[in-house]
Amino acid sequence: MSSNPAGVVGFSPASSGRQLGRGPASEAAARAKSARRRQLGFRAIALGYLALLLLAPVAMIFYRTFEHGLSPVWNAVSAPNAQHAFWLSIEIVAIAVPLNTIFGIGMALLLERGRFWGKSALGLLIDLPFAISPVVVGLSLVLVYGKTGWLGDWLAEQGIQVIFSVPGMVIATAVVSLPFVVRETMPVLRELGTDAEQAAETLGASAWQAFWRVTLPGIRWGVVYGVVLTTARALGEFGAVSIVSGRIEGQTQTLPLYVQDRFENFDITGAYTAAVVLALLALATLLAMNLLTRRAHRGTAI
Amino acid sequence: MAIEVRGVSKRFGDFVALEDVSITVADGALTALLGPSGSGKSTLLRIIAGLETPDSGEVVIDEQDVTASPARNRGVGFVFQHYAPFKHMTVHDNVAFGLSVRKRPKEEIRGRVEELLALVRLDGLAGRYPSQLSGGQLQRMALARALAVQPRVLLLDEPFGALDAQVRAELREWLRKLHEEIHVTTIFVTHDQEEAMEVAEQIVVMNKGRIEQAGAPRELYESPANEFVMSFIGPVNRLGDAFVRPHDIQILAEDDGTGTEALVERVVHLGFEVRVELKLPDGREIWAQVTREEAQQLELSQGQILSVRLPAPRVFAS
Amino acid sequence: MLGIYLTVLVLLPVAALLAKSGSGGTSAFWREISNPEAVAAIKLTLIVSAIVVTINAVFGTLVAWVLVRDEFRGKKIVNALIDLPFALPTIVAGVVLLALYGKDSPIGIDVAFTRASVGLALLFVTLPFVVRSVQPVLLGLDLAMEEAAASLGAGPLTVLRRIVLPTLAPAIISGVALSFARAIGEYGSLVLITGNLPFKTEAGSVYIFGQIQNENLAAAAAVSVVLLLAALLVLALLGFALRRRSRHVL
């Protein structure tokens, strides 16, 4: 991660100070000492900040969850509504993530390889979900697919309910996690270049064969990284899903919504337990991200 | 198989890459496309391969118009400048790729790959990944991969460009021998005139999207069609509109009245060859190329004034 | 196919939002966003976000510095944990902060239902932006440049002010802009910890949520458009600043 050549600490390269030979050795030593003190000071402030903002609160919730032993946790986990919320979250992720992955790879190819008018505008549109509040995403979806929305009457005629049911929740989840695969795939696609694909073509491969056998394996780590980010975001989405789901207990309640519901009903153990499950999934995501980054850096020979 | 390119033009936006280019390459010949960067040589090669589409003109391979057919149906082997290895595949799988997309039987593929790896002297490295190969080895792997599908023609884009000097020299020699062995019609692109002279049987000199001259190396050197070819192939002195080869300038041991006076400004020893920088009475500067032995006999030294004989200079109508 | 997907997910909804916010004409739009509660919510969001990104600029750069230039045990783990706020569901972020800084705080700090809680939640969710944008620049920063400045007699503070910070500035600005865009839209982490008290701790996104619950979609749409424009403006300014700067440097 870091390269820290000896003698360069803090803001002041102590070795250069010595090389100057302006002062006696004691002055150089004093300067090195003050650089060392500065370095320790920075470290203490930075780590202290992270501890107070990040580590201590997360550790606290693990402690609070397990402080009365495992049985209340077990009860909370096995509550029917908790179970339902968990599996609903998984179901939504299982639909939204593959959709976004296929879309993401296709869109990355289009943006990276295509030459057409309005390409940069399309790029901005893809990034839009990152600039929009999840609440606004939810509202926008209600305005299109809700009862009084643009497609409300038509959907009602078809007998399709989008808002306050799973389809709407899948759409909301897909919107907020839309850009990840596109954005993670584009740079690896650029790095891969077109030479290998053209080589495949001169060797007799069809466009489809070239994609499956050369392009996709070449970008796989970027895609997987994007999928990990998409999954984490999809699993944790709250604002948009909160609006389009209607938060019907045992029906349209995902795990994050369940956390809120338990908390507001003063079932702290239930809220903490569900939060801990989600936190564990987040930590697993971090682990996956780190392994993938290392693998991508090591190259593709495995 | 013979290759014919007829009246091909290609633009990229405002840039004219090729303008009405026609060449003929005989069956089994080893041809170099030589020119500075931006001369259109790589574009021409890619058009022959089917990796670019010409704006106008035709490409004929083995008397068959292939202008409209995609690269995969042309039966060309293409070696990319940076080899374009499939990084996630072993050397074996790289070489086998063309056969495996053709769904050939496994045993046939294995046999053919072994044969090819022996031909390019990579036997024993079949299980390695491209990242574990040196530049020269990657180059040979790329060649084996291109040859695996038994192409009608072999096209190489700056095949030695990314290699260091010694490997380069070795591979040049090796490519020529390989060509004698398998005799497939071969075109390679280079910006290095020495490389073209050493390897190719025929050289096509390109500049600014046009063909300046095509012919055997010696023919180009001895009777260049124009100024560009003369100065691109071999060293040259420019005297106004006229051109003189440095080794055609004779330094006379004694002034016999036929020569011109010249002041020696600098003597540079480059091993066997010695470069003598001279100033003529009218102020023009030229250089002469002599052997080490000649330089010793003449006792050349800086500041000396001596007599040189200039050959009849070549003048090209512009 | 890509087009249909994008239309269903992004184009249609955004168009519907814009249409809704403009459906009553400019006077209606103006009335919705000048509603005192809406004004208070928007103001709170913008002011707290501005404070939060300022803190992010300082601490994010410091954290990045320590992660790149310092060596200590467990650095890799700390580095990995920086992304936790991105990976953690926002509602969980709120719960987690409440566990330490809520009414049952084991350390006696209770910020729940105060304006400080809004800032705390936003600091948490935006933590990675500045760190992650400064880190790679710092890694690529040529130490020789700092050594050259020091050899010319510059003290540590001068090196920092004249050499290091100007080089890091584009990365810091970009991290700050991304933090800001994220902060003004944040919802999940605020819901539990702020108590959503109108005129006090109710942020813009929370106000929008309330209006949707009250079936007042026009008001919700109008405030949404204001927040959206603020986010896009900041990101556009970022693009502009970076382009200008790169021209300047090259």
Task: Tell me what the structure shows.
The complex is a heterotrimer of chains A (302), B (318) and C (250). Chain A has 302 residues and is mainly α. In chain A, 78% of the residues lie in helices and 1% in strands. In chain A, helix 2 packs across helix 14. Chain A is flat and about 85 Å long. Chain B has 2 domains: 229 residues, Rossmann fold; 74 residues, Beta Barrel (OB fold (Dihydrolipoamide Acetyltransferase, E2P)). The longest helix of chain B has 18 residues. Chain B is elongated and about 80 Å long. Chain B has 9 helices and 18 strands. With 318 residues, chain B is an alpha+beta fold. By secondary structure, chain C is mostly helical. Chain C has one domain: MetI-like fold. In chain C, helix 2 packs across helix 12 and helix 11 packs antiparallel against helix 12. The longest helix of chain C is centred in the first third of the chain and has 34 residues. Classes of the chains: A mainly alpha (302), B alpha+beta (318), C mainly alpha (250). Chains in contact: A-B, A-C. Chains A and C meet through strand 1, strand 2, helix 1, helix 2 and helix 4 of A and helix 1, helix 3, helix 4, helix 5 and helix 6 of C.
